[in-house]
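#random but structural
TW: two for the price of one
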Amino acid sequence: MNLRFDSLFVLLLLQASRPASALSPVTFSSVATRIAEQVMTRTRTVVQAPPDLLKSGGLAEACRELHRHNGQECPTAKMVAGLELPYDFPQGTYYRNGPGRFNADDGTSVIHPFDGDGLVTSLRITGKNNEECRKKNAFWTSRFVHTPGYLKDIESGKMTGRGVFGSMKSGGWFNNVMDIEPKHVANTNVIRWGDHLWALWEGGRPFLLDPETLETVDVEYSANNRIQGTFAAHPRKDPSSSHYFNFGVDDLDPAAGRTKIHYYELDDGEVVSTPTAFTLPGAAMMHDHLVTDNYLLMVWTSAEFNGLEGLKGLLGLGSFVAAIDITPKTEVLLIPKDILHSSDDVIDATTDPRIKRIPVPYQFNYHLGNGYEKDGKIIFDAIETTDEEFDFCYGSVTDKKPVWEIMDFDEMEPFAFAQYTIDVENEQYVDKQIITDCGSIEFPVVPTEMSGKEHQYIYTVASHDPHAETSGTPGTICKWDLENDEMEHFSFRPEEMVGEPAFVPKIGGEDEDSGYLIVLVNNGMTLTTDVVVLDVEGPGSLSRGPIARSRLPSYVPGAGLHGRFVRAGKTS
């Protein structure tokens, strides 16, 4: 049983507020007036009463509505009307994955978005790239990943599998007792390798999709039996080659008190060496990692298996993830990349002298931004929290209500965005700079080609007000200039939620920020989804707002999880 989980969808439920610089002042009455107008003019509007306005400007009811309704498939590519893109926007495809199905036909609902079935979307951009021809065509496709659990749910009309975060099968308590195999939901990330699109979920192996039609073509792909177990949702590009690295957290053994982690090196989707396994004590909780010139970097927060919570999960009275107790101890692990080419089958990461273990101030890390080596040190970005209870899901299991219905958005503490410096030679923690601890920063993004290299800019999602001291609904895109300690942003309307943006390099662009961000924006009042493009090159570009925005042919729920833009003719 694998107890790993993707953590950021929590942000969908945790962020709030909005900046006055990006939008005109909003009052409750003005919001209610706009929503009333939408009720009269949009047939898809589902909320007919003024929703609750959060302290910082987001609409809690809009967030709830985005999780009460399943997403829509668009299996046949449809043209997106009115999307005019500049000539230096390249041809290619924007892929994204995220939970998209929360309700079975019999009315049974998941209680946490992470347990929703994966809905993969693609936006394919075609057309000439010259100044005389600015018009490009965009084609939209969306499909659910056809996992065995999804197909069984569709055929039966019921919820036939349990979720890692406490979602139960249809049929009541008795039907869930002793079922310890969580449903594979394939809902976290996508990456294009070779002739296939890989749909990733860190609780199992990848599913392979057709990159054009998004049809599922292979289930639980093992890469000729080289993927030993699970395959995490954050492959990272090597800074000095075309290779990628990824890992899988496997074999949590409560009796032995250890966890095994497999590391993989891949070239265009092919595992290039025999996977190396590392063991760590306790229940290792790792979701993301980084790759630098010489090292694989993991942030390890120690954890233990909670027998009582594990028993409750076994009996259908609790969630699997609740069986892991975080202990307030964090270390940075630096694993030499060449160790993957050694003859070792299994390496004890706590005793092997080749692996550096560097204690840092306690935090739990959800996502990492980027990391690089400079002057004998490693500098890396982290999105972190000190919450060691993970109670964003436990209450739902007890109340048997979805987390989005019971969460108090205004009371959630925002995540912190920090940059760490590690002295590699002396194996010492140097310092931590808090970039911000406001606005619930999440989804850190750098251009793929900057992976493992020194970067000046990083792009994130934030609350509607990125300066708010509380959380709420995610509604802002930020550009951080780490060299000059500056930030600019653009915020969307209070009823709109945004997910992780993807960086699209401009044709002929020479600077690190020569590019666009592409992102999906969901409206919780109308249950519609727009694609938005933002220029981020140069100071002030992002704050001027979208350069292109169009309604998509089908609705995508929530705010999604991870994705990427792939240039035409390229993979990964």
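TW: number two ↓
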Amino acid sequence: MLRAAADPLIAEADEWLVFETPDGSGEFRNRYVKTQLRNLLDGPFLFLDSDIFARRDLSEILALDCDIAAAPNHSREIFSEQVWDQDRATLDAMGWTTGDQVYLNGGVLFFNDTVAARALASDWHRRWTASSASRGSHRDQPALNSALAACRPRLAILPDRFNAQVIPSPEVAVDAVIWHFYSSADRPQWTNFDLLVRGLLEGGKLDSVEINRCAALRHPWVGEGIIEVSLQLAALRSECAQFKREHASLQQEMDKILASRSWKITQRLRDIDTLAERLRSGLITPVGGKKRI
């Protein structure tokens, strides 16, 4: 289709590879190839979603010593905020488990050419095929994260700057290496990337000057207001995350104390102290009906 339309994108690729897929929707065929891409290609590679805008050199990712590298989903720090409701529904329906420290986004994936990386890809594709047939949904992240938990490859967690998911977390866009837009026809067009894509879809041509101008911006938003509010929200979210971490740490320490042998041995003494305090305060009347002073 690109060749028939003489699309200028053709000239941007050094090589084109064609893989056969079963019949199905575009989303199905896309994920069918994506989930087994590691076993279709030779050598290390970096997978990027089509709604990615790479602004700077990516060689730092390609130099990682790991089997696979990816960034937290939604560019969020707290695990519960990384797992989308629909992903959770698929995980529960399929009876899959994931780790509880990080839930990864599948939009930027570095795969090394190792035995462990290929084994992970095989399990990912197997799980995705099962969930796609069972659920009728072609999302690949539940299968990816459950395969990671099962296969346990050497995993490198990419910082947000290498997959700044600007829709759920606009604040991470500032000076990021990669902007990830979660593009959708139903979403309002708030970014310069949206405007570039719309121009191409309406018959425009690739404009390297405009692309470079957008890449040089500190953030992708058309106006300044969104990023200013987002930074304020990010600060509040960071404070909440710190509070949750401190609360969890205190809870763990309290659980250790309550489970300790010394705590159990001294329980009777604490009960006596509590009873004595209630007697002194008049909350309990001694036998005989007279309060002691």
